[in-house]
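Exam review. A common question shows you a sequence with its structure tokens and asks you to describe the fold in words. Practice with the pair below. Do the first one on your own.
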Amino acid sequence: MTVCFFNRLKRFRFFDIIHNTMRFSRREVLQLSGITTLVVMLLPRVAFAARNDLTSVRTGLQPGGKTRLVIETTVRPSYSLSYPAGQLVVTISNTAANTALKSKLASGTLIKSLTQAQVGDKLQIIANLNKSIGEIPKNQIFILEPNGDNNYRLVIDFTAGTSGVAQNTPTTITAITQQKKSVIVIDAGHGGKDPGCIGKGGTKEKDVVLSVAKKLKNKLDVAGYKTYLTRSTDKYLKLAERAELAEKYKGDLFISLHANANPSRQMKGFSVYTLSEKASDEEAQKLADAENAADKIDVSGFEQFSKDIRIALSSLQQHAVAEMSEEYASSCTNYLKKASITQQPGPSVRHAPFAVLRSTVPGALIELGHLSNAGEEKLLKSSDHQDKLVNAIVKSISNYNFEV
């Protein structure tokens, strides 16, 4: 009984609670096994964090020579970093080591090997480095929310040297001309016989998004990107055709522009979505159903897509593409909010099975606002507000890493 009780104490951390808060010795704690129930009743209520599991560890190479470390866990990680000589140590609370897990190491990074160590209830991921690094700036560390087949991902970018910031990395969007030109495919939703949603004042979604798409293309062209529109006129395109164009143009990023409608005339604000086979919420699913209904495609049985698009769907579920889509969507949301553009209440980034996003190209669907809201309808058709939206999206693209 004493052994079982001791194991149970270790598992739920009662051992340390009793030892530390009630000042019993460890031997005395074991002697309390006969009054387990009383001890538990006397203890204050303690909130125990959900146990976390490690599901993946991988590295990648980013533009500017940055090394990327991605640690994936089932629960949002609580972490800290330390910098012993020749190492980067990531400590994650309330997480068990997964020694059966094989790390995926990309070539050309600063990480030559990765190991795991269990320290109490904390997991340490130890990256053995080829070169020394300094403290990594906070803006180069972020957590991506679950998306599709992905769990929570702690993403850490760093370079050699004392600053932790890449040297000679282009910091302005004009510097893109010195690198390989990233390809942006801009999709103006709906078109032709499909007007999309229509505001009370008669504003059609297809017209608003085409205007914004053209402005966005012009701005990105000036910034040095290579851009394509899925449609430049009032033309109807099936959703699969739009996804195929993203593939045809070998896009590095696919942005589908839309305007929203809601039964509540009070609802307003932009929202950003990425592809997931399971919607993040009921509203996201309803929106996906409405958008997908544009050409009657049954997104549950994607046999109706061409072979290439079906292959693309499988590819999109791979970690790299899903991560890049999520990263861009998060960045886009932040820059739209920084531009003082109202965000629709709810999650920062939503997920749903949008047919138009089914390709191997990382992408997001941006609902620019609600035509069903009279005030926002006026904004969406105004040139000044469209420019405001475009400027924020351009900033999100210029600050986006195009490789994992």
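Now try the second one, then compare your answer with the model answer below.
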Amino acid sequence: MRKRQIKKIYKTAYSAQEKLNALKLLKVSTFEFTAHRYHCTIQTLYRWKRIYDGTIESLEPKYCAPHTPHPNSHTSEEIKNIKNVIKRNPNIGLNELYGKLRLNYAYVRNPVSLYRFLRKNGWYKDVKKKNKYVPQHYDTPVSIGVKWQLDVKYVPRSCYVGPFQADRHFYQYTVIDEATRERFIYPYEEQIGLSTVDFIKRAIIYYGYKPDIIQTDNGSEFTYTKLKNEKEHIFDRYCLANKIIHKTIKPRTPRHNGKVERSHRNDNERFYKYLKFYSYEDLKLQMKAYLNRSNSIPISTLKSRDGKLSWLTPKEKRKELLLLDWGVVE
């Protein structure tokens, strides 16, 4: 049977009071017990005992920097030349500085040595740091059918257990009503504009109403923003014909479509982690059952308008808003 290996943890810095407490414990205990209690070595205890003269000041950490400069450090002449060049060129870069020193002052050190010297002496302390993103307030619609968020998710290839076809892929189109968080999903084998239009038609039939705004990213299945010509996307034409505003988010900011993006993460944990399908038709059947399940899961942010009820399901929130906004009872 193999013996369990215990890793010893030693503290690297001790205050004078900690050292004094260790020496007091050493008077009534052994070196081994004291070393174990204070996570240090026995040799360290001997050193503290040797330098202790009865005052706590003798146990204060000593300045351990060398009193003489390193033999390979920059000389006073080299430091003077570096300061003179920087003084005459306050906005000079590292490469240009190195070139001037090498050409005019016979500077033979490595550029890394120059950078370390400058960094150590404070020339690079004002480097601008990237500002941390602070989420702004977002006004979520409180009425049904105001805004939908639309996105596409790639169905993991590992879920497909049918006959292998290298060029066959599956995509999950997802739309979510921001006010109710009710979703509609449907699978497609192509991620193109025709699939987008067909999906929205199915979504309108599923919800029973069309939205005022549909918000998407800048994918080619939604819009032609990256093209220089004036060609109009089929989805934009559909929205214009049906008096729907197609709003696109800022490029490379998926957080602006956060509700549908978060729902895709939930799909990975609740559905695709356990999904196995052998055909496109099988995927549609299983996705339909999962859609009914996902819209019946309570959400912490869904509350009734009067604030008395919380943790509503999307279906419950839909019934409430249909009754309050349109007077419809399902």
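Model answer, second protein: The first strand starts at residue 147 and ends at 154. Residues 76-120 form one domain. Full marks require stating both points clearly.
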